[in-house]
Design a protein that fits this description.
Two copies of one chain form a homodimer.
Chain A lengths: L7 H20 L6 H8 L3 H4 L6 H21 L7 H18 L1 H9 L6 H27 L8 H13 L1 H4 L8 H15 L3
Helix pairs in contact in A: 1-2, 1-6, 4-6, 4-7, 5-7, 5-8, 5-10, 7-8
The structure holds a DNA duplex (18 and 18 nucleotides).
Chain lengths: 195, 195
Amino acid sequence: MARKKNSSGDITRPRIRAAALRLFARHGYAAVSMRQIAAAVGVQVGTLYLYTADKQSLLFDLMETHMQDLLSELAALPTAPTPLAALEDFTRFHIRFHRARSDAVFIAYMELRNLDPENFGRIEAMRRAYEAHLDGLLIRGRDAGAFTVPDTKLAAFAVIAMLTGVNTWYREGGRLSLEHVEDIYWQMVRKAVGA
Amino acid sequence: MARKKNSSGDITRPRIRAAALRLFARHGYAAVSMRQIAAAVGVQVGTLYLYTADKQSLLFDLMETHMQDLLSELAALPTAPTPLAALEDFTRFHIRFHRARSDAVFIAYMELRNLDPENFGRIEAMRRAYEAHLDGLLIRGRDAGAFTVPDTKLAAFAVIAMLTGVNTWYREGGRLSLEHVEDIYWQMVRKAVGA
DNA sequence: GTCTATAGCGAGATAGAC
DNA sequence: GTCTATCTCGCTATAGAC
């Protein structure tokens, strides 16, 4: 609030977060030392503790911010006229959002086990909210006769796993543009839910 | 060959592997110490080095064995009469195999980044061979007019990601039996490839 | 085949100077 | 706001007794 603008802390903090995000994604939380993060930022290790209570808090902050962004951007999607259109919007949103933040996505999935129980619970709740959104969408579509799915919960898991999988193989400048990948996955999702 | 049967090493070795597998899956390779593994087995830490050159070799052995099992069991599946039947066999095999070895599956995916480059290359090659099997199956089915897939490579990635995802939520004694889960996923896979 | 003991190192975190 | 210096701990790996 009353904080002076452009204090060096306003610059250092995001630099620490960016360095930690990248290093955690590359090598894993447990394998990365505070010294490595400090070196990547260009400060000494003691400086990091001005911005984070400890290493665990740094990890949790990164994951929490990521999940909050995911949920708020999902909520910001325009309302679709039909269940089919809503599912298409979700499909394309999921691929684009996850592709644009592959480091954070990787961490949010792989480092869950390195969170202490309370922090784990909070992240899990957000992940379940995201899944519940898709499940609700599938339920409405099925009830409206637009989809044929044997089990909406399993279909939600299956769709999310399928779409998140794009991150494991997609590379910029490869055989297909991301737009084209979206088109292909949307065809597969649409057929999988019997639309 | 000429080794005496039931020497204590024949017992200790698999116990070390089992303990390492479980601990690596639970907490991650980097977060698990050789001391923890030794304690889980009930030996002192020096003993571990009688069975493994170092921690990295222990990880690689576990991953290599897992991938070899995966490929040999896949190769042992009876030949199916049609592409559709072959895809159903693959679907059910993948779910069952991965469910039965969830610790090894988790490690083989999550700890790739902790392998040194040469070891990484070997595991990656086996993973690609598995994907290529499914891709080949999809190509034959599409050419025979049994499937409608826009891109067989992407369909293979999508199917594998979808099926492997079962491990993230399935729990013994839950709402659905594994057999039932197989049925539901097979319906989704079948529809996704336009069969 | 397993143990005890330890070398050598790097980790997370903190204190206090500037 | 950042640095230097350091405390304390636990790690991988090895040596040598039994």
